[in-house]
Amino acid sequence: MDGTGAADGPGGRRITRSTCCYCGVGCGVLIHSERIAQGERITGVEGDPEHPANFGRLCSKGRTLADSARSLHGRALWPELRGRRQDARRPVDWALALDTVAERLAGIVERHGPDAVAFYISGQLLTEDYYVFNKLAKGLLGTNNIDTNSRLCMSSAVTGYKLAFGADGPPTCYEDLEHAKTVLFAGSNAAYAHPVLFRRLEEAKARDPDVRWIVVDPRRTDTAAMADLHLAIQPGTDVALFNGMLHHLVWEGLLDEAFIAAYTTGFPELKQLLRDYTPRMSAEICGVPVQDLVAAAEWFGRSPAALSLYCMGLNQSAHGTDKNLALIHLHLATRQLGRSGAGPFSLTGQPNAMGGREVGGMATMLAAHREIGDDAHRAEVEALWKLAPGSLSPRPGLAAVELFEALHSGKVKAVWIACTNPVHSMPDIGRVREALQRAEYVVVQEAFADTDTVPYADALLPASTWGEKDGTVTNSERRISRVRAAVAAPGQARPDWWIAREVARRIEARLAAPGAAPLFEADAPATIFDEHRALTVGRDLDIGGLDYLRLESDGPQQWPFPAAAAQGQARRYADGVFATADGRARFHATPYKPVAEPTSARYPLRLLTGRLRDQWHGMSRTGRVPELFAHSPEPGLRMHPDDAARRGLKIGELVRVSSKRGELVLPLELSDEVGSGTVFAAMHWSGQHLSSGGINEVSQPAVDARSRQPELKHAAVRVEKAGLGWHLLAARRGDVLALRTAVQPLLKECGYAGLSLHAEADAPEGVAWLVLRAAAAEAMPADWLAALDAALALAAGPDTPDVLEYRDMRRGLLKRVAWRSDAGDSFIDGLLWSGAQPGGESLLRSALGGGAWRGPRLAAFSATAEVARDPVVCVCRQVTESAIRAEVRNGADVPALKQRLGCGTVCGSCVPQLTRLAREAASA
């Protein structure tokens, strides 16, 4: 490859070195692209064997990135403006769009002051994008009302690190995964959320069977199923658990007393608190056996190297900061940090949550880990940005939940949302919808035009996305990687930094004081990065020694990387000197507090949320890839079988989930991975694939008092039969994203509707199956059915001779099947089944199987036995659960499954489930 990270091949083919756009692991990728008559297109992706985060590995999501980028259906391709709120948006050119947005925002600032405008941005932006937005809000407009969806996932980890160590940023690195002898997973289903790192952990454990895994999680996830010790605590009791473990360490003399005395403060006060947290009392609070709590403490305290990996289960809580601190206390008290294989390691959920923190792209911080309330820190940024003294606001801005509350109340008049979908991801989304409806002006900057937030936009600004952008990201181990464009952005889409800069320049021309230095002269990602790194010099995250040239020649680098350094620092605080004023780490009293919303007679169940293996966030990207639906094809609510039996609920039945804030309908799944009294739903399903906005219809907006992170993991809910008397199953084979675009507007009118995509083996590119399941209190009106027929081209009539129909008006039953012929054989091409009871599943299974229809076509209308779905476990090799169970019954272990079926041999994301299935058979 040349110095730009790209290499040309024959026939217009090209390979571009870049970084994956999903989780915070920050995997390197090689993007394959080619020139075609219409321009350029991405044709494939593979792991970069030279990238130190993944060494060529990719998970199921990363492997299918090219599939997510091929179709333009659903992309935002040109700017759109709305004249009045009730008007439809119309396409315009960039000049008018930029002028209009700048004029509207500047006018609001002039009338109401700078804090009447807010920005809500994303951990999926590149660092350079983040930097320009931050400078626009804080430097030009003078408001700190700029927050990010990283507030929803990482702010408690940030606050915990700052309170304990004096500065943000994990003190660990990925090499520690190989060197740890005890690994404590806390609120992290790493097998699903960070699968490439999990592969490294699996290999380290295979090399050294003495390595012990402890998993703290209310659910028996695939990660928990592989653990040596699973502490299935009651939701929200993490602080009690960690305090009880530390109590045991104190009692048994397993502390590093010399380190505590020389390098920390606050331990005597914490020790006083710990007296109340005996292992027995803590175990009773947590609902785990006391011997298991003691075993966890012993393994941790006596380990040569203990590493903790934690994620949303700790952070997304009204007590998230205390949970982070209580875990960090275990490391400080035993000096399990600053050396190989040891340390508290917060795993970021988004590709550039860390980069956003570096540039100060949140409402409660300034650039380069500076504090908004610190006069000297503000003066430093003012000098570097050439602002007049006193230009930066000393008031912290509004964090995410407060930002939308202020929009709801009218305190904030306008919001600019970029690269995120708050109408799906924020808690209590009914109130978020109301806030956006009440706002005076809403700007949405987005690559995808079909997200839940786009309908509220007065201005839609089309942004480029992965494979089309240049810049940098920082992963969970503080490693900065280049992101490179493999193809040009489609239509009129533009880079996020460019859009923000162009609006900023127009506002600057109107609002800036005469003679003020221009703020937005940087005209390329490299020059923006140079501005950013200049702000870091002398700070704890100093990257004065890094620029694009260094990243091109030496590859991804960790910070800190000051000017005189030969390389970045892998581990922090090895010398015991911390980033506090006196150089000492801080212990803090962390009393256990109950969850923010306890259960009650009316809402007796605890709702947990989490991830699916093959989907990511709101599915704007992964939801475009049929193969990624195979493992979990439909939304659902998981409930313990005993709880379902007590309520008279059956698997597959539609149930209504209600909280104090809202409700939604979901199909019921039965699973003993959740304890009695607890239910679970995945976070990913949004209005793109559901009639509702997803599980955040019922989540609670309570926030942590210090980190301002909302409680997204726990809510008190009620579950009951949905009582919907009309059901529909429809499916169509074709250009699946075009079909989805046509059907989506119809979903919200149903009591329940769920869309899923299904791949078909050997089908032409872009051809797959779209499946719609819907239900309502009574039969949907004729115009809705006509619109569905039009969207799916399933209406029976003289113009569609290959559509057969059966109607029973007395029973309200409609069956319709579309056919295609190929080489003399008949194949099902679509179907629709509606009536008082669900039906048509066996015919759907036959259609999705792709085989030719045997027998007369009219036989498709016959009543057939419903068949249970056979879940796909290995997406890469399309290996089903039944095939795996059959081999396991014959004595196959995981290596034998890999050899016989090929599962687990490509990306490895299914290996934890293979291990669980093999262990279940062995224990049985």
Automatic annotation (TrEMBL):
Keyword field: 4Fe-4S, Electron transport, Iron, Iron-sulfur, Metal-binding, Molybdenum, Nitrate assimilation, Oxidoreductase, Periplasm, Signal, Transport
Family, similarity comment: Belongs to the prokaryotic molybdopterin-containing oxidoreductase family. NasA/NapA/NarB subfamily.
Function (record text): Catalytic subunit of the periplasmic nitrate reductase complex NapAB. Receives electrons from NapB and catalyzes the reduction of nitrate to nitrite.
BP-aspect Gene Ontology terms: cellular respiration; nitrate assimilation
Protein known as: nitrate reductase (cytochrome)
Organism phylogeny: Bacteria, Pseudomonadati, Pseudomonadota, Gammaproteobacteria, Lysobacterales
Superkingdom as given in the UniProt entry: Bacteria
The keyword Amino-acid biosynthesis is annotated on this UniProt entry: no
Enzyme kind, highest EC tier: oxidoreductase
Residues of the 4Fe-4S Mo/W bis-MGD-type domain: 13-73
Gene3D superfamilies for the chain: 2.40.40.20, 3.40.50.740, ADC-like domains (2.20.25.90), BFD-like [2Fe-2S]-binding domain (1.10.10.1100), Dimethylsulfoxide Reductase, domain 2 (3.40.228.10)
Recorded catalytic activity of this chain's protein: 2 Fe(II)-[cytochrome] + nitrate + 2 H(+) = 2 Fe(III)-[cytochrome] + nitrite + H2O
Entry-linked Pfam families: Fer2_BFD (PF04324), Molybdop_Fe4S4 (PF04879), Molybdopterin (PF00384), Molydop_binding (PF01568)
UniProt key word Methyltransferase: no
PROSITE patterns xrefs: 4FE4S_MOW_BIS_MGD
The protein's Enzyme Commission number: 1.9.6.1
One Gene Ontology term, aspect cellular component: membrane
Cofactor(s) it depends on: Mo-bis(molybdopterin guanine dinucleotide); [4Fe-4S] cluster
Positions of transmembrane segments: none
GO molecular function, one term: 4 iron, 4 sulfur cluster binding
